[in-house]
Amino acid sequence: MGYDAFYEPAGGDTFVATPATAGPWDARSQHAGPPSALFARAFERHEPVDGQQLARVAVDILRPVPVAPLTLRVRTVRPGRRITLVEGVAEADGLEVLHARGWRLARSPESAAVGEVPGGSVPGGSVPGGGVPGGGVPGGAVPASGVPGGEVPDLPAAGPAEVWPGAHSAGYMAAMEWRFVRGGMTLPGPAAVWMRPRLPLVAGEETSPVCRTMMVADSGNGVSAHLDPARWLFVNVDLTVVLHRQPRGEWVLLDAVTTIGPDGAALAASRLSDRDGAVGQGMQTLVVTPR
Predict the structure, then answer these.
(1) How far apart are CA 259 and CA 174, in angstroms?
(2) CB atoms within 10 A of CB 121
(3) Residue 233 pairs with which residues in a beta bridge?
(4) Beta bridge partners of 193
(5) Which residue ranges make up each domain of the chain?
(6) Residue 111: partners with Cβ closer than 8 Å, 6 or more residues away
(7) CATH of the domain spanning 7-107+127-133+150-290
């Protein structure tokens, strides 16, 4: 690809976006997944409290985020031993481009007795590392199969042109690995896809599972589109991810559905899972307009 990460650190809270961050709509603008993950990284690290974990991240997209240096300013809004609210602003080219808030919650050893939430199994299909997940996929079951070597799902990999026809090959679409369980961007309607980044979020660092989940979650509107992207824009103005369990492993399953209203607004809702079951939900508010 010619680059080693989505971002290169530039000192302090500034990060230089590489071409891997570019979204499919415009090679000059970032896909919202990487900068949302950058906020999650900042929220995990800012004034950490022992035993707390990031449970919610909400990002508002004020304007397109250029593929350029991005500076984050983060502060604690509500400190606490059990709950902490943090918020941040991302600036590029002298403009505020993103606002975000994150809730960190204290881990509770007693919560383990509650058990997994109903419906917490992974939809049917191949799972990274092998094994047969429980449950079925709405719209048709997919036969489960083992994974040779336990490294990748036993599903065909989709290339950038298959994921988003006409997208430039240097950006986010190529920097992520895609394994569709059902549906696809070339097929209208709900879709489920295993995803993982091919590159670290920040050069020289291990990407946390929460950051990987944020990178994946912002693709819900794309994979479950009902409209032809050559004729329609269906861009999101926000992304909210709520985690009832911390994700594990490199792969994240995005199981997404888009509902389009009659007046130009739409909602993309995504169920997020790892190989052990559901970890949370993603939600995006969309504006739908003809190109």
Answers:
(1) 27
(2) 15
(3) 289
(4) 180, 254
(5) 7-107+127-133+150-290
(6) none
(7) 2.40.160.210
